Amino acid sequence: MKCRERLEQYLHDNGVAYHLYHHAPAYTAQAVAEREHVPNQMVTKVVIAVADGELVMLVVPASRRVDLIKVRELLNASEVRLATEVELAEAFPDCEIGAIPPFGNLYQMPVYVDETLTADPIIFIQPGEHTTALSLAYSDFARLAQPTIASFVAEHRREVAAPHNDIKEMGAW
Fold this sequence. Notes:
This protein has 173 residues and is α/β, with parallel strands linked by helices. The protein is built from five helices and eight strands; from the N terminus they run H-E-H-E-E-H-E-H-E-E-E-H-E. It has helices at 3-13, 29-36, 68-75, 85-91, 138-145; strands at residues 18-22, 44-51, 54-61, 80-82, 111-114, 122-125, 132-137, 148-150. The strands form two sheets. The protein has a five-stranded mixed β-sheet with strand order 4-2-3-5-8. Strands 1-7-6 form a three-stranded antiparallel β-sheet.
């Protein structure tokens, strides 16, 4: 079963109202916002990181960037890095790479949502494909995904020296 079909069935089974939107291919969350004519703040960007060898899902608004140093501190991890495309393909075999929905619970993966995403009552997600967006109530997403709410977006784009040799990437993404 494809990711979108699986997600739609999951939402239907849990009584969640949602809307599907079809658009020209969009390969970034900001492009989805442009295609759907909605603010970047309402569109989720899913970033998959590896923290001490375990995959974690980080969800932020399209316009924001994940600060891996903050994530390392949040998770009390000694090593945090971005997942590779190979790791993404293995973890999300039913999704197009870069179009992962923010439901880590469907993939036995913890979900962390930056608090900046919780401000809007409606969010837009990519349901596993680059030509479709799906909107749903943030409250329904939170009820089903049961994310941990935290603060881990970068304040601004910066290049910083890693305070520890165990941070493989530097700065904010």
